[in-house]
Amino acid sequence: MRIVGGEFRGRGLAAPKTLTIRPTTDRSRESLFNIISHAHPAVLDGTRVLDLFAGTGAVGIEALSRGARSALFVESGVEGRGIIQKNIETFGLQGRARLFRRDATKLGPSGTMGAFDLVFADPPYGKGLGERALASASRGGWIREGALVVLEEETAADPDPGGGFELLDSRAFGDTVMRFFRYTVPHSSVGRSISAVATESRHDHE
């Protein structure tokens, strides 16, 4: 595994030793960022990135290599967090990258972490986790108005993250489909009660 473009191009990434983590391949990651750079050329310039189900952190670090200002890596697995931390240190990204131990489907309110301009979600396939995570991110205020959201899933899946996510494009790579959404804050999210957000946060800590 290596970074395929930008400041860190060609540098190797720490990789998983087990099959519990399925990192995006170098080729798929290169295709992903080629699409972004051509269809959304300004999106990486100084942007804040949210990497859900971050795994090894490869996608978020690729974004940092290509001009993103900062990245938050959300990962609940022990092996994944260890790999992400190692990669952050290897690339000297301590000032631009943060590791967040959390179930991506139960994010709770974003609080002081604010909203993000570019969101990646690469969940375990076939379980509906990606759409649940994006719905949770929407409820919690993690996604900025107008943000680009990328959801990776198996070709057989038909994810529906709910209101606010406008499908812009869909690209297939073998057994994988990457869906590109533009996010608009739903009216229901704007008026969501504090008690509902607090309930989600409380459940996350149980």
Automatic annotation (TrEMBL):
Q: Which PROSITE patterns match?
A: N6_MTASE
One molecular function GO term is: methyltransferase activity
Pfam families with a match to the protein in the record: Cons_hypoth95
SUPFAM superfamilies from the UniProt entry: S-adenosyl-L-methionine-dependent methyltransferases
InterPro entries associated with the record? DNA_methylase_N6_adenine_CS (IPR002052), RNA_MeTrfase_RsmD (IPR004398), SAM-dependent_MTases_sf (IPR029063)
Keywords from UniProt, A to Z, are: Methyltransferase, Transferase
Q: Does the keyword DNA-binding apply?
A: no
Q: Which Gene3D superfamilies match?
A: Vaccinia Virus protein VP39
Q: What GO biological process terms does the UniProt entry carry, in alphabetical order?
A: rRNA methylation
* Coiled-coil blocks: none
For this entry, the protein name equals 16S rRNA (Guanine966-N2)-methyltransferase
Q: Tell me the lineage of the source organism.
A: Bacteria, Pseudomonadati, Pseudomonadota, Alphaproteobacteria, Hyphomicrobiales
